[in-house]
Amino acid sequence: MGMQVGNKKGIMTSINITPYIDILLVLLIIFMVSAPLKQYDHEVRVPQPAASAPVQNVRADAIIVEMELDNTVSLNQQIVTLQELESTLSEVFRYRAVKNLFIRGDSELPYGDIFVLMDIAKRSGATDIALLVKSTVVSK
């Protein structure tokens, strides 16, 4: 509590709330740290393709960008460069109402290479991008 002395009006008292705010903040930090944070651990189960999975029928209007291990890129089975890919996709998406795109790549590819394709697709106007894994069919 603070007091003012030296005034002829009398003693004036006012409450200093600074220590109370300090105590409040310390208690808030203690409760935040001591409150148990409940974490849920869920296993993520990713479906694995079957060894002899049949080739699925792809719709004729689907846009599929594929990347091989040697970083060759193809758009619906036509080989293009990365510079051509962006302009070609922009032209295709300009006239389409549904702007879906599939990116298929080998599971051995680095993630960075696939992210480059995703960035190009986003800049070109793709709204929905799905990732596909290129599976090798093993004959028995």
Question: Care to describe what's here?
Answer:
By secondary structure, the protein is an alpha/beta fold. The chain has two domains: 2-34; 64-134, Nucleotidyltransferase, domain 5. It is built from three helices and seven strands, in the order E-E-H-E-E-E-H-E-H-E. The strands form two sheets. It has a five-stranded mixed sheet with strand order 5-4-3-6-7. A two-stranded antiparallel sheet has the order 1-2. Helix 3 links the parallel strand 6 and strand 7. 9% of the residues are buried.
Give short descriptive properties of this protein.
140 residues, alpha/beta, Nucleotidyltransferase, domain 5, 2 domains, five-stranded mixed sheet, two-stranded antiparallel ribbon, 3 helices, 7 strands, elongated
How many angstroms separate the termini? 89 Å
* CA gyration radius, whole angstroms: 31 Å
CATH top level of the largest domain?
Alpha Beta
Structure classification = alpha/beta
Number of domains: 2
- State the helicity in percent bands: 25-40%
CATH topology-level name of the largest domain: Nucleotidyltransferase, domain 5
Order of helices and strands: EEHEEEHEHE
What general form does the structure show? elongated
